[in-house]
Amino acid sequence: MELKDIIKQLKEKTGYNNATIARLLGVSKPTVGRWVDGDVYHLKEETAGKLSELLGYDVTKVLNNDLACFKKPILGMVKAGYDLFLDSNYLGESEVTYDEYNNGDFFLEVVGDSMIGDGIVDGSLIYVRKSSNIQSGKIAVVQVGDEVTVKRVIIKDDTLILEASNPSVKNRYFSKKEVMELPVKIIGSVLYSKTEF
Predict the structure, then answer these.
(1) Which of 20, 108, 144, 159 has a CA 20 to 30 Å removed from the CA of 49?
(2) Which residues pair with 149 in a beta bridge?
(3) Reduced 3-state DSSP string for the chain
(4) For 77-111, how does the pLDDT look when each residue is reduced to its tens digit (9 = 90+)?
(5) Does residue 114 carry a catalytic annotation?
(6) pLDDT 10s per residue in the chain (197 long)?
(7) Phi-psi region of 84 (alpha: psi -120 to 50; beta: other; left: phi over 0)
(8) DSSP β-bridge partners for residue 141
(9) Does pTM top 0.85 for this prediction?
């Protein structure tokens, strides 16, 4: 990845213009313009450090094609089942690719086996993109009152169904009223799961 791509990503992520980027990084506006045009390929160490803070990853490593530097936080645990209270303890970080870094937000560690039919097992990490909406049939992290779970979300007429992929775990059904009152909220969509043993 080149410096111009990194600056483009910063602009897309933050909406900053060249003048704002220049002010935040302590450089001139023309310097940022040269970065955008692809005329400059390297940064001073101090500037790279400031840019890394803005983006949340080590810019120097990316410029040196060390793509193993992208990481996302593991923010807690989610139940593949029910009755686990929302646990938002920081559990570390897991590496992601550049594309994954841009598409998702955080990992959760799975407890339970209600989603084994989809390859999500006890101890798996699921990579989640924050979202309050989900397409029917997709797997999501869902908050039900004080509980949190990972399930396939099915939306039919006035009913929301949380569907397990383990036949021994019952599906749960919620009316429109229950969705509002409990509440039942989509926290994010599951992009993929990985298991590290």
Answers:
(1) 108
(2) 79, 142
(3) CCHHHHHHHHHHHHCCCHHHHHHHHCCCHHHHHHHHHCCCCCCCHHHHHHHHHHHCCCHHHHHCCCHHHCEEEEEEEEECCCCCECECCCCEEEECCHHHHHHCCEEEEEECCCCHHHCCCCCCEEEEEECCCCCCCCEEEEEECCEEEEEEEEEECCEEEEECCCCCCCCEEEEHHHHHHCCEEEEEEEEEEECCC
(4) 776 655 444 555 667 778 787 778 778 888 988 98
(5) yes
(6) 788 888 988 888 889 999 999 999 999 999 999 999 988 888 889 999 899 888 877 888 788 776 556 777 777 777 665 544 455 566 777 878 777 877 888 898 898 889 999 999 988 999 999 999 999 999 999 999 888 899 999 999 899 999 999 999 999 999 999 999 999 999 999 999 988 65
(7) beta
(8) 150, 188
(9) no
Query: What is the number of other CB atoms lying within 10 angstroms of the CB of residue 98?
Result: 15
Cα radius of gyration rounded to whole Å, the chain: 21
* Both tokens assigned to 89: 């303890």
Active-site residue flag, 44: no
Q: Are 160 and 180 in contact (CB under 8 A)?
A: no
d(CA 22, CA 25): 5
- Rounded CA-CA distance 162/77 in Å is 18
Q: Which sign, positive or negative, has the C-alpha torsion 114, 115, 121, 123?
A: negative
Catalytic residue chosen out of the listed positions 52, 124, 151, 189: 151
